[in-house]
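Q: Hi! Curious about what Cell division protein ZipA looks like structurally. Here's the sequence.
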Amino acid sequence: MCKESGMTNKGTLYFLIGKMGAGKSTHSKTLAEQVGAIRISEDDWLSLLYPDEIQTFDDFVVRHRRLLSVIRPHVQQLLSVGNAVVLDFPANTQRDRQWFVQLATDVAAAHRAVYLSASDDVCLARIAQRRVAQPERAAFDNEAVFTAVTKLFEPPQQRENLNLEEWVQTL
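A: Let's find out. The predicted structure is below.
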């Protein structure tokens, strides 16, 4: 609360757009440090709440939706009291991005979308590196899942009116 004007300063919601393996989680960590934000990672929450329950993409979708219903009021409260929040959740379809924007808009907070543009080859190479570094993710982090998920990916469009910045990713 700004004591001089009686106005409340709202936080900013940051969210990331990018194919599987584009570097969203890595970038979210850096971004949170740079802007002094609270980072909330879907992968972290899902692994803690549902250990060994996510074996397929359908398993992921069910738990993802449950998590969004819990995260929404929590993030809105954080934004309402002036915190910057980085959501390390994929915003990879127009529908996803509308959800993120509405989450911020509902509490009169700003949003910032970060698009990590990367070729399929770059993403697949990173996924292969991740399987080596994190063998527990090998069942889900593979070319078949990448191909299935990438079919759903929608690059951001100007008509979405996002506060957008784009980062081109390379190896």
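A: A fun detail: Confidence is low (pLDDT under 50) at residues 1-7.
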